[in-house]
Design brief:
Elements: H1 14-20, H2 26-34, E1 41-45, H3 49-57, E2 61-65, H4 76-84, E3 91-97, H5 106-115, E4 116-127, H6 134-137, H7 139-149, E5 161-170, H8 174-194, E6 200-211
Parallel strand pairs: 1-2, 1-3, 3-4
Antiparallel strand pairs: 4-6, 5-6
Length: about 220
């Protein structure tokens, strides 16, 4: 499910996780600001119904391009192939959710530039890390996210800028937050839950953004 950056330990919990993630709408507001999206033709890469609804609510005309598989990174060449099926200069913005444009992704970024109109915006939503979910992700993934966001990392070295969104998973109380983490992520989730001191889980999101270079 592209509304989430990971597959829960129990797939039937995906809808609960989506409902708890970013109830304040910070990610949607960041995209609307960085786009801008009102009145724009927007391509959304990833079958993400919640995000598609938010983009539409921001005034965008949304075209969804589903991605194969789950939350695992989609190969750069495959993302480029999917984008090559879209008309040239047909979008004002292109939004990638979680599994696409993972660093490094030069072919898919070049394909995105072909689809974007002059001045069009590429907005890549990825995790930023350094939050309550680092223990769930594992040390290798947490370190990878840090590398991505460094000044000498691929994104910032390829013309992207970064907007960090301090999102949360919000639940009714501390017990519910702990139950959801443990049910969704097993032992790692239980360990993360034991460290909570309030009924919401920090989840930091990076929106890597760039303007299509002039021809």
């Amino acid at each position: 499910m592209a509304d989430l950056p990971f597959a829960p330990f129990r797939p039937e919990l995906a809808d609960r996780l989506v409902a708890a993630l970013d109830v304040e709408g910070k990610i949607a507001r960041a995209l609307a600001t960085l786009g801008p999206l009102e009145g724009a033709d927007v391509v959304l890469l990833g079958d993400a119904p919640a995000r598609a609804a938010e983009l539409s609510a921001a005034g965008a005309r949304v075209t969804v391009v589903p991605l194969p598989g789950g939350p695992e990174p989609v190969p750069d060449a495959l993302v480029a192939e999917l984008l090559d099926g879209l008309p040239e200069a047909s979008a004002d913005a292109l939004v990638g959710m979680w599994s696409c444009f993972a660093a490094p992704s030069p072919r898919s970024v070049a394909a995105a530039d072909r689809v974007l109109r002059a001045g069009g915006r590429l907005l890549v939503v990825q995790e930023y890390g350094r939050d309550d979910l680092d223990g769930v992700r594992g040390t290798d993934r947490a370190a990878e996210l840090v590398r991505w966001s460094r000044r000498d990392g691929w994104y910032l070295g390829s013309g992207f800028r970064i907007r960090v969104v301090h999102a949360f998973w919000t639940t009714g109380d501390l017990a519910e937050a702990g139950e959801l983490l443990e049910a969704a992520f097993g032992e790692a989730g239980a360990e993360a839950a034991a460290r909570l001191r309030r009924p919401r889980v920090t989840h930091n999101v990076a929106v890597y953004h760039r303007t299509r270079p002039a021809a």
